[in-house]
Fold these 2 entries.
Entry 1:
Amino acid sequence: MRTTLGCVLGSWMLAAAPAFGGERPVIDGVFREWSGVTPHATDPGGDATGNFDLTEARLQSRGTALFLQVTFVNAFNLPDGPATDTDLRVSIRRLPSGSQLTFGFREKLPKLNGTNMSWRPLAFTSAPTTASDRMEMRIDLASLGVAVGDTVRVEFSGADAFGAPIDFTLTEPALDIPRRSTARVACTDLRVASLNTYVTGLLNAQRAPALRRMLDAVNADVYLFQEEYNSTAADLTSLMNAVDPKDDAIPWTVVKSGELAIASQWPMIPVSLNERHFAAVVRVPGGPDVFVINVHPFCCGYAGSGSDFSRIDLASDAIVDVARLRSGTLLPALVPYADAPIVIGGDWNLVGSSTPRDLWEQSPTRLSRVPLRKLIGDDFWTWNNYNAASTIGGFWPGLLDLFLVQRPQLFPRGGFVLDSRDLSAAELAAMGLQAADSGASDHLLLVLDLGRLPRTDFSGDGIVTDGDFQIFAAAYNILDCADLAMAYGCPADLNADGLVDDEDFQFFVIAYDELVCP
């Protein structure tokens, strides 16, 4: 079969790139699906008050959902910023003369025909949550009585405006709703879950049963908890043994520092990096041992605010400690694990600059983000305030929780964001969940599956063969693979550097003619 591989080498550069489905609008902070959309409005820079200096807007629709991509002169955070900024307001009216939705991004108070409302019926979300000069957002206009074929008028006002309103007709049918499985993909060696439990939720008499059901449903090997302020390691050890997520009666261990806790059945060596970064060497059976970091930096603010600088300082400090781990000078007990690959998860509170994440991605450890969609649908957001005392207005759902992984030492094999409110009755029953369970916290539960080997069995037949190579070859020289990967469209980027190239080919050759799970 090695000879057969050589026979197809000559033709791989001629293979056509597959259709990765990048036209499907997805609110993830990656803008590939907008490249073929002509701007519906443009505006010169320098005529605005504050940061909201519009330059262009592009629109798409799917069913009653309106998708907007807006470009600005400056990079900034959409929902928060200096008090000196004039707000940017949006008005969407059903034509010829119908219901009207209005909101200001800094005011964060949507109004339907003048009446305050929640973001939830609008299914509103935007990305990125970090500062950017491009923003994309989705608004479901069903509350306005809008149907496919209707025309809406979109106007911006306040800090800036376009020269004329944008009249846009919703022509495209609604998107299908993808439904994914919670099952582990073949060759998954490590499943990590992360959950901000919201103010010691695991010991809260009202909320803990729901949180425990979710922990039990995902059967992870390692759990990262944030905001467990008032619990002890002994409390959480008792809880995990009672939950028994893997139903095998093997004892669990929990290590804890401040509000951050890490739980596993496997041996762990705890490592306190700083008050908002807590780590452990996890002794994965069969290896490699993994250095898992649980993060929860300070919340809120915007790029350039004190909170943002604090998050940057905490990340920088933790990166110094990782460098010491690599050099064997962090702790004597960690010397045997100096080369352990790194997984970072938790609630990053990444609402200011992207710098805290960028520092990790640019560090010598070569970490890369693993994008995780909700189990049901296309959404990437992980936080919402739908369960606050008042659900009128406030911050809309955002992506605050995420995983970074060191590649190519570890390969993401799957994962999802769990929101029980999306599940059908049959899905709830199969997972042992109740529909309201995810409402026990303001953060959703994230699950990431990792393996030692790249997932080169693209065809799913259990062995890496010529058919898999043809699929790999079709993706060779894809230049925008980083964008495609955000939409789960680029599995051939085996080293996750944003390009399918010779290095990925070397990984493929190593796996060729091998069983997927030897």
Entry 2:
Amino acid sequence: MILIRTKRAKQGDPLTFKYTTQLSSAQPGPKVDVLDAAAFRVLVSELYSSPDVIDLLGEASTNWQDEIFGSAFSHNHNLSASGNMVTVPWRASFHFNENAGVLHTDHLKRLGGRINLQPSLLDDHLQFNINLHASQLENRIAPRQATGYAIGFDPTQPVRDPQSIFGGYYAWTLDGLPSFTAIPNPVALLNQTEDYSNTQTLGIHANAEYSLHFLPGVTLGVAFYQQSLSTDRESYISDRAAFRYQRGGQYDLFEDTYSNRLLEGHINYNRFLSSINSNLNLSAGITRQKFNHKFSMFSSNIENNLAGSPFLIFSDLNGTNSKHFSSLTFAAGYSYKYLYFANYNFRSDGSSFYSTENAYSGYHSLAAAWKIHNENFWPEDFFLSYLKIKTALGQSGNMDIPYSSFVDQNIRPEKFNSFDLAVDYGLMNNRLAGSIRYFYKDQTDLLVPVPVPSGTNLFNYVLTNQGHIEHKGWEISLGAALVEKESLSWGIRAHLTTIQSHVIALVENNQDFLGFPSGSIGGTVGTAIFILREGFPPRSFWVYQSLYSSNGYPMSDLYIDQNGDGMITELDRIPFQTPYPSLFMGLSSHLRMKNLQFSMAGTLVTGNYAYNNTSAFYGNYSRLYRPEGQYLGNITTEALDLNLKNPHYLSDYFVQDASFFRMDYMQLAYNFRNITGRNLNVEVSATVQNAFVITSYEGPEPEISTGIDFNPYPRPRIFTLGFGVRF
């Protein structure tokens, strides 16, 4: 079942308009600390005596990260109206926003609208809800590789060269032609890449609920959802761009059309049984969903290009694919005297991803609760004003396949068995309220990409069921209404989650089996940084344990021999830390003084580590001079302390603690109510997002979803002024 909730009008409401606008300025986040031009010249002169290398130094002083990053302005507008057309409540909204990115040439424009109608018939026994929405998104996409090139490009070279035939941009050349292996000028990469996408979305969601006249408590419902999404992405790289000169420029066109259709029907019986002071709720439903995808791809170089390369079509193909999902559900709920509650749920899910034998899976769940504070023996005016104990035991599954790959013919859906035990509480008439929850989840039939021996298949790996993982932890929430007065209120909320995950078993008979590797890292080909191994957290980093000097830096090629055989091999790599946090905490506060409001929210995450791929790649002297392309490249200032001649990608040094506290937002708002005695409300606000971050992580951004930090795009700090009027 898909439940879509939108803002709605109510029957009898007067005609109301609301307009809000937000003006934002985004400032680039922290940058990678690299050598400036002066320090770069000194280091190159110290390490290289050859005139051929020294002569490569330029006379400019360029901060390449400053050249590609800058402040960005955005504006966002929303207009809505609601009311009643005869007796039909309606609501319509329109939005437009335009956002520039802090990475130059990043730009997004979005336009959309929504209409909601809620007619009813038969004395409101038959109710309809109809939603129509449409949007268009235009996007210029800046190539993200520019962030890495700005870290590593020679700071003594200029951005532009008046004598350059490559669009007037400086480029590394050999015999007058662009160096094939040299990294591109990052500013040229941004300005000479025109990558545009245009996406149109159109959707309708309609549902009807009929409460039977002749069977009180029985409701029949049907729902329909249809969404279509069409995307055209066109990319053009000039034949005068040095980084595509030898290829003759590049032109790419991608066209995608997605459609998603859902049909649902359900019946519900809800009845209060006064004779036994109980409430009974029964429901059953059926859902059918279909996804269609049509695509085409075309890629070529540019005709009559500057390099004189022949016109070539690199790819020209199209295709379609589809997938189907279905569900049968049944639920039963019973409560007695609003004291005791019990629920049972069953669902059978089906997917076209799987073979006939494994296409359907059934899942059961049970839940029970006891509101102790409603018992007769509970003392009145007790400081513990609310106490509820609840528990649940259930099953669920993953009917989707997370990878686009070759799969085992006998693959089965992942399964989850879970157990929860929780206590909800309230103190002092619920001025202080929260919950404490213990959870356990058992994940079996894990979907894992297993490497395939070379030559046995067209694919490098096959997706199959391998493994068993358990997750367990605690969730604690607390909310406090510290002050509750007519002209003053102040409340805070906190939420804390701790979680531990371990691989219990992997289906593999080989005693020398190391586990399943994954996660490619930048700078190497075919090197995995993660390992799935029994007894360790899933996606543990897989590294060598370095020997360290007294100053805390790894000692060149020295690793610890874990096996004691006198050799350093892959068998000496160890699972070490994980990108998944062990503790997550959210904290928010809201203060109101008459019409003035202040709110804030922050996030604390600990136990998560990141592989600092940027430091591993640029933190060594080998990046300074590349003889194969005869060009110079910059390095991080940390490289001077590491003093490594070559990269040591698999050293545990680069797996670094990425715990952090982030102030997500802070907002100050004032509401001018009932201006001039009329129903006119005006609100003004000032907000800062990503206000500050406290972390010991060495990279510019500690929150890294993949766990691999390479060529980072730091999260910007955004200042927003908001204005809203309602009448």
